[in-house]
Amino acid sequence: MSKLRLGIISDCIHFQNPNGKFGTETHILLKQIEALAFHFSEVVLCCPVVLFDDKKIATYYSIKNITIVPVPNVGGDSFSAKLQLLSVIPKWFAAFKKVNKQTDIVYQRFPNNLNIPGFFYFKLKGKKTFATYTGTWKSYRNEPVTYSFQRWLLKHFFKGPVWAYIDDVSQNPSIHAGFSPSYKKNVWDEETEQVNKRIEKLQTENLSVLKMITVGALVANKNQQLILNACLQLKKAGINFTLTIVGDGILKEQYQAFIQQYQFQNQIFLVGKKTAEELRVLYRENDFVVQAPIHEGFGKVPIEGFFHGLIPVLSNLTMANAMTANELRGFTFKVSDENDLVRVLSSIFQQQNKLPDIIIAGRNYAASQTLEAWAEAYYKTVCTFYNV
What we know:
Helices cover 42% and strands 19% of the residues. The chain is α/β, with parallel strands linked by helices. Helix 1 crosses helix 14, helix 6 packs antiparallel against helix 13 and helix 10 packs across helix 13.
């Protein structure tokens, strides 16, 4: 651990429980912050803090060198929401001032409203900074203007290293290809025995059921409806399957109605949000991770699947081919094409001889995608860039 103090600017919503512990429902970000904190003497996290309620699926910080500088939680597309955004900017700058005073280097996580003024504040202060852009690096249809603006700032005016979800080498030496880890190396080790049993079983007998899981907010972009439609075709084709849908959101009732309409109660399961440990159990019970987003920067769920010996089936967005290595570690299908997804799933079901090798390749890939590897790469790159 160095003597350097790290500030982090993030729009990830946090809360404080009655015992005084800070936590969040964004479990993976918390793990990433803790992994970075291993390399710094102190971490000051500036983020929105909301009131606690016991319905939250919470994860809490377990290390002591992390403190919180709270800002109000604002945002939305309505006019009143935009006015509210303007009203809190002075509070944001007061928080930035605290972070600037208490830290040596600042890590800014884009894209979000908080880091637009944050970009200009820390640049004017001459602060040492680095950044991650967690959205889709290439422009896409109906992309928010603020997203493309922040990407433009990072490409042309940001001083420090920037990590983006790209599958090739950037022409800008300050832009690095990055990934978003979920697990430590010890989790990879813990899963070895059950993965080996999974492989041994596949080497002696074929799967009789396609056991699938999909994880994400139940919103239009995550496109779970396409997977549901594909399930309907699988049923007509006589292919046995189960699908576990993890997450919550505005489309929950729509998906429940679909399950009821087609009598899928014994095959498709809406299980809501899950803690990290609960999700690990579900991964172990399934064989395939199916994700069908319309656009996405970096899919964390396929990487989580690799750790547990699952095979990803992904819509072929920018990072999907890099993750699956053109069917060496998984499979892709055309974005928003349920017929192509059905084709891929049917092919997997009918030709299973390659599945053990695919699992092994995915597990080997996951071993390089740990929280420790991610945090160490960030730390070393930043220290080299700033010569600290």
